[in-house]
Please model this.
Amino acid sequence: MKMWYDYLWILSLSYLILGFFNILFAWLGLICFFTPLVISVVKGTKGYCNRYCGRGQLFSLLGGRFGLSRKRDVPNWMKSKAFRYGFLIFFFIMFFQMLWNTYLVFAGAAELKQVVTLLWTFRVSWQWAYHGELLHPGAAQFAFGFYSVMLTSTILGLITMILFKPRSWCVYCPMGTMTQLICKVKNKE
Amino acid sequence: MAKTTRIPRKAQVMESLCVACGCCVKVCPMKAISIYKGIKAVVDQKLCVGCGKCVKECPASVIEIQEVGP
Model:
């Protein structure tokens, strides 16, 4: 039987769409950052991955029901601990760099850049989704940066969804790796 | 007459490579799989009928259907 949390992919999809209209919606993405961490720290489970991850549901829907996946096995290196932990560290570094850029704008040391950076490389002008000074420019800078993170990881996930199994993103998802690590530490293995 | 014995086939998880995503749990028709403390998938060998749905679903492809000894 389908439960209410089986429809959270609708929220994930809406989130991605809203970012095209008003970048400040990107702040909502923090829910996807804190919920899995809180569940793993407090309960010591990967309840977020197991039940609530809307992105995972979206991939399994597109790759499974819509058949947009070759359904091949992921290569061995992709499921190795070295790659998973390496990708987590890389993601961390990029995330803190994004936070640093946000800080610079908050501190008045840098101008707001109305840009979404895809795959940490391609700067896409995104000024159509910014409608002026409702909040401090720093808050907008964080929104652009955070949306870049979310869109980049979605694109990576879509690519591996097509090439391999629908939810192959789950294999190297930094949040999944991190919550599994937290569970290992908390449950002492 | 030779007596043929059926060797049961069941899902086995390569635990060290499991990412504990829970995809196998969702797809198991026997509710035989659970995620142990957010670390790995564990198959209840008494409930598993060896259908192989989890093998297909597993994003990391770390589940196999294997014959289990008599």
Q: What stands out?
A: Chain B has a mean pLDDT of 93. Strands of chain B lie at 9-13, 33-36, 40-43, 63-67. The longest helix of chain B spans residues 23-27.
